[in-house]
Write a structure and sequence with these properties.
The complex is a heterodimer of chains A (286) and B (251). Chain A has 286 residues and is of the alpha/beta class. Helices cover 35% and strands 29% of the residues of chain A. In chain B, 75% of the residues lie in helices and 0% in strands. The chains are: A alpha/beta (286), B mainly alpha (251).
Chain lengths: 286, 251
């Protein structure tokens, strides 16, 4: 089976520091995959190795079967990367920037697609503006557009919504979800865990260069987090109590007992499991 | 399809967009040298028979402009991309190290020839000059620009900040060009300084280039061509090896 991304025992050492300590993972074609971890966990290092910006000390990485070192030309054509840093070339306009990026991939008559990408990212009005004059959010959109000019089947987004306002974030996710629905594989790193929970089919959590959790989002939520129901009740004598129930299954019998005892339910609160809780528990555990 | 034409076009457009700084300013500097030195030294220095000092000076100034601008082009472009981080846009696509080298060096050659031609054109308004052997002029200008373009790449690959490129420019390129016989013939120097000048590769570039104008030179032009050719091959090989290894470009 060919995976969109396949990493086998990837290690990266900077002198005595092991930024990646043997990472193995597979991302299937068409997946929306999340790569989470605290700062310094090795997420960007792993992305850099996948993108050919850094070389692994050992191990191998393939993009749709193409080795990122031995077959780097094919691997890079199959991959679009949105870098974390807000970088740009101050000499050029948005359209020039996108045309250059397209030309670097050997696509020189690509204006129709460039126009479409600009339309989706709401950049048409800024096409002839110099990159220097754009706001941070607009520069971020151009970075996304640059990653898409060669229509890569696999797209890696390294914290694409860092410092981005809510409106742009929503627009960006709408667009990325559409790309995913159209068959693109998406790999995402983010510090916004609610985004990852909402978007990703599967999630890998990295800590100190190792994968410490790797499963579907749903399984991670079930395994590391529990649903709870919190009931605030008032007794006959006016005293109030808070009851924490273990889960939804416990709800009906407990409610029946409270009714029997004539206890009034003042408030019910559902405590749903979330990825933030999972993340904290996984990081604590390892 | 290859990435090379786009990368070359990008590099050409980059310097052309700031042509006041990259073309007009060096032409102005060369003209000021011509006016000041020609006025101060005309009649006092005579390098070749039947050649005035102003005539002697013009090819040297043209070649100095060619060399300095070739270096400045590749060095400033790459160090800016490294420091600002936009180099990532050239590292993510499948651009080979040979395409990268070719685009940066050819763009350097183009800028160097544009500046050199402009300096020559303006100087001809003040100084009467003939071309004895135009192909030698073109050959040395091309090779000299290619060497300095490659050297600019090497310097920018090595450097981590603008300051280091400025140091390279001021403490390596500038002394080597000034002491290469731009303003004088090395025959006018004491013997030990003549010998020292022969260790300076820039001397052969200037001397061979000047041969194309006057048909006379301090060193036979073929010998200069050989030295310059070897320098180009060695420097290009070193630069290509650095690019291939990803030294200071890919982690």
């Amino acid at each position: 089976m060919t995976f969109a991304i396949e990493a086998r025992n990837v290690e990266k050492r900077y002198g005595a520091l092991r930024a990646l300590a043997g990472v193995t993972l597979e991302v299937s074609e068409g997946e929306f995959f999340g790569l989470l971890g605290p700062n310094g966990a090795g997420k960007t290092t792993l992305i850099s190795i996948i993108a050919g910006l850094a070389r692994a000390s050992s191990g191998e990485v393939r993009v749709l079967g193409a080795d990122v070192v031995a077959d780097y030309r094919r691997a890079r054509r199959l991959l679009g990367v949105v870098p974390q840093e807000l970088v740009f070339d101050p000499f050029f306009t948005v359209r020039e920037t996108l045309r250059f990026q397209s030309g670097y991939f050997g696509l020189r008559r690509n204006d129709d697609w460039i126009d479409e990408v600009m339309r989706h990212l709401d950049l048409v009005g800024k096409a002839d503006a110099n990159m220097r004059t754009l706001s941070g959010g607009m520069k971020r959109r151009v970075l996304v557009a640059q990653a898409l000019v060669h229509r890569p089947p696999v797209i890696v987004l390294d914290e694409p919504t860092a410092g981005v306002d809510v409106e742009l974030r929503q627009g960006l996710w709408q667009f990325i979800r559409r790309l995913n629905r159209d068959g693109h594989t998406i790999v995402l790193t983010t510090h916004y865990l609610e985004e990852a929970e909402l978007l990703c089919d599967r999630i890998a959590m990295l800590k100190a260069g190792r994968i410490v959790a790797l499963d579907s989002t749903q399984n991670l939520l079930s395994a590391f987090s529990s649903s709870a129901v919190i009931a605030r009740v008032a007794a006959h004598d006016g005293r109030r109590f808070t009851l924490e129930l273990a889960g939804y299954a416990d709800l009906e019998p407990q409610l029946a007992r409270l009714r029997e005892a004539g206890v009034e339910i003042v408030d019910l609160e559902l405590d749903r499991p979330d990825l933030e809780e999972v993340f904290l528990r996984v990081m604590e555990k390892h | 399809m290859s990435s090379f034409p786009t990368l070359l076009y990008k590099e050409l457009l980059r310097f052309w967009k700031v042509a006041f700084q990259t073309v007009a300013a060096p032409v102005m500097t060369a003209l000021l040298y011509l006016l000041v030195f020609a006025y101060a030294l005309d009649g006092r220095v005579r390098a070749f028979e039947h050649v005035t000092y102003a005539q002697f000076l013009v090819p040297g100034l043209v070649m100095m402009s060619v060399l300095q601008n070739a270096f400045a082009n590749s060095a400033s472009s790459l160090i800016q991309s490294k420091v600002t981080g936009n180099l990532v846009f050239m590292l993510l696509p499948p651009i080979s190290y040979i395409e990268f080298f070719g685009a940066y060096v050819i763009a350097s050659i183009v800028r160097a020839l544009v500046v050199g031609a402009a300096v020559l054109a303006v100087a001809l308004a003040f100084v009467d000059l003939q071309l004895a052997a135009p192909l030698w002029v073109l050959g040395f200008a091309l090779l000299g620009a290619a060497i300095l373009g490659a050297l600019g790449l090497v310097a920018a690959i090595w450097a981590d900040k603008f300051d280091q490129i400025a140091a390279f420019q001021n403490f390596v390129i500038l002394p080597l060009t000034f002491l290469s016989g731009v303003f004088y013939s090395i025959r006018q120097l004491p013997e030990h300084w003549q010998a020292a000048s022969h260790l300076n590769p820039f001397f052969y570039m200037i001397d061979g280039f000047r041969y194309g104008f006057f048909g006379v030179s301090d060193v036979p032009p073929l010998a200069s061509l050989a030295v310059v050719g070897v320098c180009f091959v060695l420097l290009s090989a070193g630069c290509l090896a650095l690019l291939r290894s990803g030294y200071k470009l890919r982690q």
